Structures are given as structure tokens and as C-alpha cells.
Amino acid sequence: MNGEETGREFSEPRRRHDLRFGRGPRAVAGAVYGIVSVIAVIAGASHFDDSAGRVLAFAVVSSAVIWTVHVYASMLADSGPEVMPWRSVLIAGVRHEIGIVEGVLVPLLILLLGAVGWIDDERAISWSMWSGVVLLVLIPLFWLRRTGRSWVRSLAGAGACGLLGLGLTWMKVLLH
To answer: Which end of the chain is more exposed for a tag (fewer CB within 10 A), N or C?
Structure first.
């Protein structure tokens, strides 16, 4: 066994990831992070009985800042010792961290419905947080099943992630 074969034993197998569902584990991780962060921001921003529009503005700006910092950190990590063009590193950083943006979309869209008056403010805020909890259950469930985990392990992982969302939702209740 040569050194190259030994290295392969411990390296992660290379798989082509399906582009229809998040483009791989990094995007799934980003989506979960995005959902958790936006639920926390909504919980913190909505405890003053603000309108859905104000909570939406705060959540959008906060999510944009979080995403930008992640893209920047990804750019630094990917630039490495060799000199790479910043444009290539920026594009790679955006691709690596797009899951964060994908994760915040549903809760922000629900807040937008409240901001434009299609649903009342309190319901929009509540539904946006609950949509995040539902996504925190569904994303790990589907991802773990797709990667070959058993139903029991997939449900356990989805339940653990859902509990995190419930904890953040409970934080809102405590703040009120």
C-alpha cells in the first residue's frame, strides 16, 4: 500500500452532489445555519410588539450581514497559499455560502406577507418562526435519508434539529 492509497482511506469519498437539493452538505449546513439565525433574529426583534415590516427589515439586514461575513470568511479560507484571482475566490465564496440565503427565504417571505398587509403582523411573525421550525425538521430528514441513513437515524437527526428551532421559538415566548 503506497502513501496515496493510505490517504484515500481517510479522505471523504468524492461524490457528485445533486444540484436540485442544496448542492451538497455545505449548502445544507448553510441552510440550517440561516434558518437558526433568522429565527433567533426574529425572536429578538419582535419582542417589542413591532410590526412585521420592522421585524422584516431587521431580519433582512441581519441575514445580509451574517451571509456577507460568511462569504468573506469563506473567501479567506479558500484563497490559500497560492495567489488566486479575487473574482474566482468571491464566486466560490458565494457558492459555498448560498445555503444561508436559501435558509432564510421562507421565514422572510412570510414576514413580507405581514409587511404588505396580507396577514396581520402577529400572525406573520409567528408563522415565520414556525416555518423555520418546520424547515429545521424537514431539511435534515430529507438530507439524511438521501445520504443513506436509516429512517430511525434520519428522524432522530430531524428531531434534534427541530428541538433547536423549538428552543428559539420558546425564547420569543420568554421575551414576551
So the answer is: N
- Cα–Cα distance measured from residue 21 to residue 18, given in angstroms and rounded to the nearest whole number: 6
CA separation, residue 3 to residues 7, 8, 13, 92 (Å):
6, 9, 17, 30
Residue 84 φ/ψ region, left for φ over 0, alpha for ψ in the -120 to 50 degree band, beta for the rest: beta
Q: State the residue for C-alpha cell 428531531.
A: 159
Which tens digit of pLDDT belongs to each residue from 129-151?
889 888 988 888 888 788 788 88
d(CA 116, CA 129): 18
**HSE toward the beta carbon, residue 16, CA cutoff 13 A:** 0
pLDDT score recorded for residue 89:
81
In a 10 Å sphere around its CB, with 0-12 CB exposed, 13-18 middle and 19+ buried, how is residue 17 labelled? middle
